[in-house]
Amino acid sequence: MGVPESRAIRGFARMCMDGWLQGWHERNGGNLSYRMTPEDVEECRAAFSFERPWVPMGVADRSLGGEYFLVTGSGKYMRNVSEDPEGNLGILETDSEGRAYRIVWGLSEGGKPTSEFDSHYLCHVVRARATAGECRVLYHAHPANIVALTFVLPLTASALTKALWQSETECPMVFPHGVGVVEWMVPGGPEIAEATRKAMAEYDAVVWAHHGLFTSGPDFDSAFGLMHTIEKAAQIRVLALSAGQGLLRQAIPDEGLLAVAEAYGKELNASLL
Ligand code: 13P
Ligand code: ZN
């Protein structure tokens, strides 16, 4: 069995196509990374080659040093991933200090990992820590409605989270910790990675103002479902604000948000209310 038929690549490629079909990945917009399990690595190892050079990252953290990451390539289109996994994806081995990576499979023809790999790596570090190692998927997309809200709502976790919680009854159950925000920054590289790391230490989803959204989760379904739920809530908010010309006549009350979370055994981050 080749790497493209492995469990990890099949799940990864399916998610890339799902995001494309939602309209979240214009051109090369968005990127995805998966921290492979030891079993995933074993399934693929026979196809690895260790000849490509180590490349320093813009960030460093040894807590995930030595782990393997499956990532989208920079400038690659999500819609092409399932057609040609080897040309559009790469498996990266990180060095023991967590300062550099080398491509051990894929990204053929001189491809490079996503320009947001610094953000992905630091977010994997903090989400792995926050979830006792469960978090494995980091997903960045450009869904239109959540980006639109960053032009009209205050850029705070509480303003954005409350607007989203109020917009769809299941939101307090799906993301009870809330959604963090990073102010507008130039994408790619260590500065936005550091700001995103800080926000992701607290939240499993973080909005990049005027740009997109980052979500995380233990598997492809959870990270995709979180992106989908947040974007759907944002769409409802945008529709309601547009129809009401900025005026909302009523909304789910704070006690209702708390009650939904409680009914599903979740603890709402009440500091955001
Ligand atoms: P990459 O093609 O380098 O992954 O960049 C896409 C993107 O969305 C940057 O934020
Ligand atoms: Zn982006």
Describe this structure in words.
The chain has helices at residues 7-22, 38-44, 85-88, 117-130, 144-152, 157-167, 171-174, 190-200, 220-243, 254-263, and strands at residues 31-35, 55-56, 68-72, 89-94, 100-106, 137-141, 180-182, 205-208, 212-217. The protein has 273 residues and is of the alpha+beta class. It folds into two domains: 1-115, Class II aldolase/adducin N-terminal domain (L-fuculose-1-phosphate Aldolase, 3-Layer(aba) Sandwich); 140-273, L-fuculose-1-phosphate Aldolase (3-Layer(aba) Sandwich). The chain has a nine-stranded mixed β-sheet, with helices on both faces. Strand 7, helix 8 and strand 8 form a beta-alpha-beta unit. The radius of gyration is 19 Å and the shape is elongated. The N and C termini lie far apart (51 Å). Bound molecules: 1,3-dihydroxyacetonephosphate (13P) and zinc ion (ZN). The site of zinc ion has 7 residues, from loops.
